[in-house]
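Just scan my protein:

——
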Amino acid sequence: MLGQSFSFADLASQILVGLSRAMILFIVCSGLSFVLGVLRVPNVAHGALYMIGAFSAFSISTLFGSSTTGFWLTLILAPLVVALVSLIAERVLFCHLYQREHLMLLLFTFSLSLILGDLVKIVWGAEYRSVLAPPILRGSIPLFGSAFPRYSLFLLFVGPLVAVGLWLFVNKTRMGKISRAAAVDREMVGALGINVSWVFAAAFVIGCYLAGLGGALVAPTISITLGMDHNIIIEAFLIVTIGGLGNIWGALVGSILFGVTHSLGVLFWPQFAIVFPYATVVIVLLLRPTGLLKSVW
């Protein structure tokens, strides 16, 4: 409750919890930001792909077990399932719509999210599912005078690795540079003999792969259920907006702000914890309407 005193251990532990959740948000948001930056598509179905990643993680972990090997196979295969679904959707549907107005794209991706949600219900049913973390990541370790979950600590390492990997891909690889060029001038890239259609397909699949990876990583921490895509897509669009369109580090900073403020809200004023991150978004947009960091596209 507001006004109650808290120890340093309580505060540090809650900040770390917020940071671990922020890493999941960042992984999902980085994919959404990448798709927005290259394709200019406000992909509302991104949340549904995140949900498919979580449900795929459940099926794969059931198949291979909750051992350490099974866990790593889950993290490899579940995002690939999402990447395959996204590739099919892009080649069959999206590739015909890139030149349409943003409102039409928004409505289309919203419709696609509803379709994917129904497909999830048909394949996995409406029951709650859960995934066990591998034995090595179960339990807690003492940190700052309190017990901190091992899996949350694992997430704190994964998030920055994804950020660095995506930054290296965008800035240091030929494919990444072509994607950036296509985002600025599609016709010129096409005139150089590059198949822009497949560049867009690759960018879309990479972004959706990250949504699937986020779903697979969050699976051991929450109950996997229908509707889990709704909250994540709202939060993801807000984070991408305040971070700066297409800016990977902006998505990271925005995710940290969102995750930590919510976590601190739970500590200081739990009845209104959900208000804290959204109030932060409002303040940021009032002070910097274009986002915390500059758009790179």
Observations:
- DSSP finds eleven helices and two strands in the chain.
- Strands lie at 140-143, 146-149.
- Residues 8-39 form the longest helix (32 residues).
- The mean pLDDT is 89.
